[in-house]
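Please review the protein record below. Let me know how this chain folds according to its tokens.
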Amino acid sequence: MKAFILACVATIVITVAGVAVLDSVQQPVAEAFATTGVRL
């Protein structure tokens, strides 16, 4: 049971870290595809 709880906690920590990293890396679509020929 101890290993299962540890695995659940590790999953939550990895998920939160992944969300934080992806949130800082990804750009909104209006910025990512903003060129002179694009109208959004």
About this structure: The mean pLDDT is 85. DSSP finds two helices and no strands in the chain. The two ends are 52 Å apart (CA to CA).
